[in-house]
Amino acid sequence: MNISGQDRQEQEPRVRELSLDESWQLLEAARFGRLGTADVGRVDITPLNIVASRRHLYFRSAKGSKLTTLQLNPHVAFEIDTVQGGTAYSVMVRGTARILTDPEETAKVEALGLKPWLRTEKLEYVEIAPDYITGRAFRLGD
Question: At the top level of CATH, which class does the domain 8-139 belong to?
Fold first, then answer.
């Protein structure tokens, strides 16, 4: 309790907007999130592992419908969330996805330690360049 008789938790807002730097700290620590893509009136959410570097996000994928969708409509959303102590955090990114084809670019991403969690062949590298980022912190337990 403080001098006014309120607990510290009572003084903190239940929902707080995160700064851009706070949002990037959470994105850089994250290794898992959800990718949102849209194709001809259909929206898909795909769980995937990621790595963040130089204010961009990277993931690997096998050839297939996800990559085809990204080629047809590169506008994506990406979301992470985590709970630390009594606070939940959520960060949402809107941006543009680009399949990396330059061997120098893919080597740089490989050096970041981006490896598939499952032992499946995921030879394609994708970069998400953020256009818009929002983050929120939620005080739990009230």
Answer: mainly beta
For 124, the enclosing helix (H) or strand (E) is: strand 124-139
* The pLDDT value given to residue 93: 98
What is d(CA 118, CA 73) in angstroms, rounded to the nearest whole number? 26
pLDDT above 70 coverage of the chain, percent: 92
Inter-CA distances, 71 with 39, 63, 74, 83, 84, Å: 10, 11, 6, 34, 36
Q: Do residues 32 and 81 touch, judged by C-beta distance below 8 A?
A: no
Contact 101, 60 (CB under 8 A): no
All structural domains of the chain with their residue ranges? 8-139
Read off the pLDDT band of 113 (50, 70, 90).
confident
User: Within its chain, how far is the Cα of 12 from the centroid?
Assistant: 26
What is the average per-residue pLDDT within 27-53?
A: 93
Q: Are 41 and 107 in contact (CB under 8 A)?
A: no
